[in-house]
Amino acid sequence: MLQATGTRYVIRPVELRMESAGGIVLKSTEDTQLAEIVSVGSRVEDALPLGTKIVVNWNHTVPVKHENDALWIIESAAVAAVYEEKV
């Protein structure tokens, strides 16, 4: 796995999936603004835990291809919000 350094996170885009009342799985047709944290730098203050879903401005990210996995690097200060699903 790619390890974040300093005040950065390594993130992976998250595809939104919704289910209709009839059980049909619907995928979002819009570009997602959500990502999941897969690595946290050692100097991130108030670090979010791995697996946290965040809202991302993709203009503030650096794309990286690692072991056939599309990942992005983002500064912790560029995280716009934490996404929490309704239960």
Taking pLDDT < 50 over at least 5 consecutive residues as the criterion, the unreliable ranges are none
- Give the radius of gyration: 14 Å
Task: Give the ordered list of helices and strands.
Answer: EEEEEEEE
**N-to-C CA distance:** 31 Å
The residue fraction in helices comes out at under 10%
Mean pLDDT, nearest integer?
A: 88
Classify the secondary structure makeup into a structural class. Answer: mainly beta
The helix count comes to: 0
Sheet with most strands: strand arrangement: 6-7-1-4-5-8
- Main sheet makeup: 6 strands, antiparallel
What fraction of residues sit in β-strands?
over 45%
β-strand number: 8
Shape verdict: globular
Number of domain modules: 1
Blueprint (SSEs and pairs):
Layout: E1 8-13, E2 17-19, E3 25-27, E4 34-40, E5 53-56, E6 61-66, E7 69-75, E8 79-82
Antiparallel strand pairs: 1-4, 1-7, 2-3, 4-5, 5-8, 6-7
Produce a short descriptive summary:
The protein has 87 residues and is mainly beta. Helix content is 0%, strand content 46%.
